[in-house]
Amino acid sequence: MKLANYIYALLLLMCSLAAHAQDVITFNNGDEVKATITEVNDMKIKYKLFNSSDTTILIAKTSSIFMIKYASGTKQVFGNTLPAYNKHLEDIVDEEVAKMKAQADYDKFSKIYKYKKTVAIVLTGIGAPVLAVGIPMLVVGAVNERRESRAYGYVSQRASDMYSAGGLMTVAGFTLTLTGSIHFGLAAKYKKKRDAAASQLSLYPATQIIQPVGNIGSSYSGIAMRITF
Question: Most buried among 11, 133, 137, 188, by the most CB within 10 A?
Answer without folding.
Answer: 137
